[in-house]
Specification:
Layout: H1 14-21, H2 27-43, H3 49-61
Amino acid sequence: VMSRHSASVSQISDAKLFYLMTRGLTRNDARSLIVSGFLESAISRIEDEGFRKEFAETTAKNL
């Protein structure tokens, strides 16, 4: 049995939020954009296209 797993837990930096907010995004929109970008690399590796699409849509709704 082979397994790969990695996890990342961290706070979104105030500097990243500030940068996006100075470009007109709200704090919530900036946070959602950062998290979406982080998740995109993982979501893109889901092989089942239907599940990938459903997972991406559900994730986007809950950000």
